[in-house]
Design a protein that fits this description.
261 residues, alpha/beta, Rossmann fold
């Protein structure tokens, strides 16, 4: 997949996409985690083998611009609804991870008819636990090695060695982190209004987490799923917060089974 740029609501949006190529199963909107799209590419290629794939880099991530007016996940949801309009996609399935899952949930409350099925992997975006305790650990308040232990089941195999990245790759990594902090900082990792809107979602949803996910707990995932009218949960063994990296085959099988049945 080659990247193009599309201007949406004043955002220069980096977009990875395939044409429909005669595929009959409709489009999949693919929304990446706070790491950015790049680590998802090999997994996304599996999805694109049978489906039209639309995978934007969120504003402020990758090579997408971040205008001054855009400072919330809710803003991105509106941008992506306009993206679907521009691409003439009347209805899509969604595969989304972490902060991408939050974006997907916001979109599905605003335009329920636009989505057929939602596959949310380690999603954030709502407040489940008590007000005086964070549901999602504050990644920016700890050393990177401590954060890696929450993100990956096998840190030694999966953690990114920044010393091996090019200057361009490093710039994107740090820009992604800066943009993530801007979008999720206050209130931390959730929109207080979202849980009051999730009853509007009409699409069946699959909530997935790795069994060693140190960011999204099983209790959080179960509580989140219960806020939607039609949702079920699934656990991927031997994986942390990013099962598309640690267990791509198992995650792909779970998502395909959900989307095709």
């Amino acid at each position: 997949m080659n990247a193009t740029t599309m201007k949406i609501a004043g955002v220069d949006l980096e977009l990875f996409a395939t044409d429909d190529g005669g595929k009959q199963d409709g489009a999949v909107l693919f929304l990446h985690s706070g790491q950015g799209y790049d680590p998802w590419q090999s997994f996304a290629a599996r999805v694109a083998a049978k489906r039209r794939l639309v995978a934007p880099s969120h504003p402020g991530f990758g090579k997408s611009s971040l205008p001054e007016w855009l400072d919330s996940i809710d803003d991105i949801a509106h941008v992506y609804l306009e993206l679907l309009d521009r691409l003439e996609i009347a209805q899509a399935d969604v595969v989304a991870c972490s902060v991408g899952g939050w974006i997907a949930a916001e979109m599905a409350t605003k335009a329920p008819q636009r989505f057929r099925r939602l596959a949310l992997v380690g999603p954030v975006g709502v407040k489940i636990g008590p007000a005086d305790k964070l549901d999602i650990p504050d990644l920016f308040a700890m050393p990177q090695d401590a954060a890696d232990k929450l993100i990956y089941r096998d840190v030694s195999r999966m953690a990114v060695d920044l010393k091996k990245l090019s200057d361009e790759e490093l710039a994107i990594v740090f820009r992604n982190r800066e943009s993530l902090a801007l979008l999720v900082w206050e209130p931390w990792m959730h929109n207080p209004k979202l849980k009051r809107r999730l009853h509007r979602v009409t699409a069946p949803a699959l909530f997935v987490r790795g069994d060693a996910d140190g960011l999204v707990s099983d209790a959080y995932l179960q509580g989140y799923a219960r806020l939607l009218p039609s949702a079920r949960t699934r656990t991927i063994a031997d994986a942390g917060h990013l099962p598309h990296l640690e267990q791509p085959q198992a995650l792909h099988a779970a998502i395909v089974e959900f989307l095709e049945h």
